[in-house]
Design brief:
The structure holds two protein chains of two kinds. Chain A is mainly β. In chain A, 0% of the residues lie in helices and 53% in strands. Chain A has a single domain, classed as Immunoglobulins (Immunoglobulin-like). Chain A starts with a strand and ends with a strand. By secondary structure, chain B is an all-beta fold. Chain B contains no helices and eleven strands. In chain B, the strands form two sheets. In chain B, strands 2, 4, 5, 6, 9, 10 and 11 form a seven-stranded mixed beta sheet that branches. Chain B has a four-stranded antiparallel beta sheet with strand order 1-3-8-7, with no helix packed on it. In chain B, a hairpin with a 3-residue loop joins strand 4 and strand 5. The termini of chain B are far apart. The chains are: A mainly beta, B mainly beta.
Chain lengths: 116, 114
């Protein structure tokens, strides 16, 4: 079984400032890692994913995340946020076990609010 | 346009009145699933389907049914809705049932049971 912890339920930040959204996970098996974004009244959209290889992954809209296996973390960063980045962000994992299906285990979400 | 559609988007109903939320994808995806989203709990999987006629329970299946008679459709059925099923529901699909595949989400169905 897996679990995902997003420590910050809300993160306020001024426009053009950098931001980091934290995500930690626990799992008894190897996992794949994802960040999804949910804009108001919309479904979830994939920002980026880590499957293997380089631990720094880049996604859409200037976001990036770094996988740290020793700390079981997958923090999301953006060097300069825009007002349009205001949304809820979900970290999620799925396991690499064959036949385990494609179930995503989600964190509780972080609401990013960008202010002028 | 590749998409997952859900209907209805909003639904208010009363306890015990059977309802169905439809989900359809046009990407020929094998894997489909249903999640519910509740404040402070994130999204939790209700049921999933690896392919036609193959369905299985997720983490919170109680009170729900599903069927997969066609590849593109995966309806969620609440036979006797109760207030604790008031939630935001999302359907998702991916090309296969392995964990490395991106899931595509529908726009959501907000259900209120009174």
């Amino acid at each position: 079984a897996q679990s995902v912890t997003q420590l910050d339920s809300q993160v306020p930040v001024f426009e053009e400032a950098p931001v980091e959204l934290r995500c930690n996970y626990s799992s008894s098996v190897s996992v794949y890692l994802f960040w999804y974004v949910q804009y108001p009244n919309q479904g979830l959209q994939l920002l980026l994913k880590y499957l293997s290889g380089s631990t720094l992954v880049k996604g859409i809209n200037g976001f990036e995340a770094e996988f740290n296996k020793s700390q079981t973390s997958f923090h999301l960063r953006k060097p300069s946020v825009h007002i349009s980045d205001t949304a809820e962000y979900f970290c999620a994992v799925s396991d690499q076990v064959t036949g385990g299906g494609n179930k995503l285990t989600f964190g509780t979400g972080t609401q990013l609010k960008v202010e002028l | 346009e590749a998409q997952v559609t859900q209907n209805p988007r909003y639904l208010i109903t009363v306890t015990g009145k059977k309802l169905t939320v439809t989900c359809s994808q046009n990407m020929n995806h094998e894997y489909m699933s249903w999640y519910r989203q509740d404040p402070g709990l994130g999204l939790r999987q209700i049921y999933y389907s690896m392919n036609v006629e193959v369905t299985d329970k997720g983490d919170v299946p109680e009170g729900y049914k599903v069927s997969r008679k066609e590849k593109r459709n995966f309806p969620l059925i609440l036979e006797s809705p109760s207030p604790n099923q008031t939630s935001l529901y999302f359907c998702a699909s991916s090309s296969s049932g392995t964990g490395d595949n991106e899931q595509y989400f529908g726009p959501g169905t907000r259900l209120t049971v009174t």
